[in-house]
Design goal:
By secondary structure, this protein is mainly beta. It contains no helices and 6 strands. The termini are far apart.
Length: 75
C-alpha cells in the first residue's frame, strides 16, 4: 500500500487551482487549500487556464520526496 503524504502545491503562470482531491470520501482536507494529503498514494489537482496565454508551472512537494513539476502552455 502506498503511503499517504501531505503534498504542497505551488502554481505559477496564467492559471488557477480549482480544487484538489484524493478519492477519500472521509477526508477532512479542504478542496481549496494548497496542501492536501494523498490517499493510497494518489492525488488530483484540477487547474483552469485564464484567458491570458503563457507558461503554467505546477509544483508538488512532500516531505522526504523529490518534488514533481508539470509544465503546460496556455494559448
Amino acid at each position: 500500500m502506498a503511503a499517504d503524504q501531505e503534498v504542497t502545491f505551488e502554481l505559477a503562470g496564467p492559471a488557477v487551482i480549482l480544487g484538489l482531491g484524493n478519492a477519500d470520501l472521509n477526508s477532512p482536507d479542504s478542496y481549496q487549500d494548497r496542501v492536501h494529503k494523498t490517499y493510497h498514494g494518489r492525488g488530483l489537482a484540477i487547474l483552469q487556464a485564464t484567458t491570458v496565454p503563457g507558461s503554467i508551472h505546477l509544483k508538488a512537494a512532500a516531505p522526504g520526496l523529490e518534488p514533481g513539476t508539470l509544465a503546460l502552455v496556455s494559448r
